[in-house]
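During the no-cost extension, the postdoctoral fellow (Dr. R.K.) reprocessed legacy sequence entries with the updated structure-token encoder. One reprocessed record is reproduced below for audit purposes.
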Amino acid sequence: MSLIGTRVFIAEDEALVLMTLEDSLAALGCEVVASVLNVDDALTKGVTLAFDVAILDVNLAGRSVAPVADLLAQRGIPFVFASGYGPSGLPPQHRDRPLLAKPYVISELHTALRQALPHQASTLDP
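Re-encoded structure tokens follow.
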């Protein structure tokens, strides 16, 4: 399943991880609409930007990304959590969202995005 043209918003506070993620998304044919390093910027851009899916680091500079997840859920925008700590750190109200383990593996990134995007869920490969 192709992700070509998928518009992605990224909230990730580690610059090297962010660059790696942006490169992986480009390799999948995605367009990174914006990337932010902290919760405040994520909330601001999460309200104003148009994108298909978001990748949210669970912890942005020591703050929970839960308010951003709540905002995106209210807007009906799908998102994937990213964490090196597993599902225990996810906001309880969003534990049903896909989780992308760090360090990123491009095949797992692809799978997580496909799981998050509702219009593609029905066309997943078996």
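Confidence is low (pLDDT under 50) at residues 120-126. Helices lie at 15-27, 39-48, 66-75, 106-116, 118-121. The remaining legacy entries will be reprocessed before the final report is submitted.
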